[in-house]
């Protein structure tokens, strides 16, 4: 199984840091960018081949990944159309393989990826009581359905049961959803793709990740939190310690 990392976003809420550096290359510790941490966690979870989709300041990320034979870099010049388009750009590199999908601006411990692997596609790891989330109101929410399935996903849900950790187990149906939506809408998110599949009667399961460590790093406050106790816990799971 492959690991796909979406690292194309602009990171406007982290300005002015992202005026000169793409969000994926912001450091959570000295010499440890967000993207590098995500890739290390995926490898620790048993995923040896990775696909990284770049967009905003993609040349800087490409240079940072130069000489990595286990990493395929895919360019998304339309990164402003949201992360569902970045997902679609990875289709050729992924082919027919099943894959774990994560966002470069999320930090997460290896056990979350292992839960996704154990549940298998199609699934999303969800957390009912997030410990480290900086701004729950801005987070992507999950409404659960019968039999451990997901009935809806989105930031604007009025009722919800859990939060989206950003770790998915996927197959080619996600590319089908992204392609169909890209023909209809200018902007397409990964959440839109999940909701599209659900609306077509395709079950999308919830993998339980409550109590595990993760955080969406999209604000200065979240970045500060990621650099604290959360990073120590994640690096501890990797057998490493903060530099």
Task: Chart the SSEs and their pairings.
Layout: E1 2-7, E2 27-29, E3 32-33, H1 34-44, E4 50-54, H2 58-65, E5 71-75, H3 83-89, H4 91-94, E6 99-103, E7 106-108, H5 110-119, E8 123-127, E9 141-144, E10 150-154, E11 162-170, H6 172-182, H7 190-199, E12 205-208, E13 214-216, H8 220-226, H9 229-237
Parallel strand pairs: 1-4, 1-6, 4-5, 8-12
Antiparallel strand pairs: 2-3, 6-11, 7-13, 8-11, 9-10, 9-11
Can you tell me about this structure?
With 243 residues, this protein is α/β, with parallel strands linked by helices. The protein has one domain: Alpha-Beta Complex (Spore Coat Polysaccharide Biosynthesis Protein SpsA, Chain A), CATH 3.90.550. Helix content is 32%, strand content 24%. The protein is built from nine helices and 13 strands. The strands form three sheets. Strands 1, 4, 5, 6, 8, 9, 10, 11 and 12 form a nine-stranded mixed β-sheet that branches. Helix 2 links the parallel strand 4 and strand 5. Helix 3 crosses helix 6. The longest helix is centred in the first third of the chain and has 11 residues. It is globular and about 45 Å long. It starts with a strand and ends in a 6-residue tail after the last helix. The mean pLDDT is 95.
